[in-house]
Amino acid sequence: QPKCNSETGAIVSMEALSRWISPVRGFVAPGEFIPFLENNGMITSLDTYIWDAVCQTLSYWKHDHLYVVPISINVSVADIETINVPEYLQDLITKYDLSPEMLLVEITETAFSENNIIVRETIDQLHQHGFCVLMDDFGSGYSSFNILLENLVDILKIDKMFFEKPLDDKNKSIIQHIVEIAHTLNMQVLAEGIETKECLDFLKEIGCDMVQGYYYYKPMPLHDFHKLIKSRKSDVKA
Q1: Which among 37, 42, 173, 178 has most CB atoms closer than 10 A?
Q2: 13 with 71: CB under 8 angstroms?
Q3: 3-state secondary structure the chain
Q4: CA nearest neighbour of 153 among 214, 116, 106
Q5: What is the 3-state secondary structure (H, E, C) of 111-172?
């Protein structure tokens, strides 16, 4: 799913998402199969498969001289506890002749409360390898502002729950303060789940850097994204 510049709508990066199209059941929502994989200790196998596929895609773009935008991958606390994520990702970008700037790493806010120390150590090592780290689902947990003030990540993704209902003054105030504090700490801000012009206009007004959501683009198969970036090449990463 593309992520866009709030002001221009230009595609600045994208996020790799897992979708299951079953020959028997048809489309199976992530909310149905991801918890099963997590509960059975299988989520890291899926995640590492996706990370490798993403790096293959980036390598294909690079060596075929296609326009390249960074791609985000999701890293769970289970991944961090199971494997050495920074070394694993470094090995992948070496294998596929990529630079770390081409691969963005998203870690959910809840991971910080589940295994605080190892997550912080992992982020530090990711930064040492040159990776950009995003905090996903910011605002969905109970320790958001403590984490924010520790200045651990490069980009905050404001959780979609803030935008699921029409914006009221309370929500607007909270969102505006998040953006202001993040910018004070030299972090960029991305709002996810943006589906209406009202939300987009408000985010532009308060200086939110990026948005992700159905207002611009739904998640799409990779071949559809290839067509999209070719058709909008002049608008990409503006």
Answers
A1: 178
A2: yes
A3: CEEEECCCCCEEEEECCCCEEECCCEEECHHHHHHHHHHCCCHHHHHHHHHHHHHHHHHHHHHCCCCCCCEEEEECHHHHHHCCHHHHHHHHHHHCCCCHHHEEEEEEHHHHHHCHHHHHHHHHHHHHCCCEEEEEEECCCCCHHHHHHCCCCCEEEECHHHHCCCCCHHHHHHHHHHHHHHHHCCCEEEEECCCCHHHHHHHHHHCCCEEECCCCCCCCCHHHHHHHHHHCCCCCCC
A4: 106
A5: HHHHCHHHHHHHHHHHHHCCCEEEEEEECCCCCHHHHHHCCCCCEEEECHHHHCCCCCHHHH
Please state the pTM of the whole predicted model.
0.91
Residue found by looking up tokens 């209902």 in the block: 165
Query: For residue range 167-215, what is the model confidence (pLDDT) as tens digits?
Result: 999 999 999 999 999 999 999 999 999 999 999 999 999 999 999 999 9
Do residues 215 and 198 make contact, with C-beta atoms less than 8 angstroms apart? no
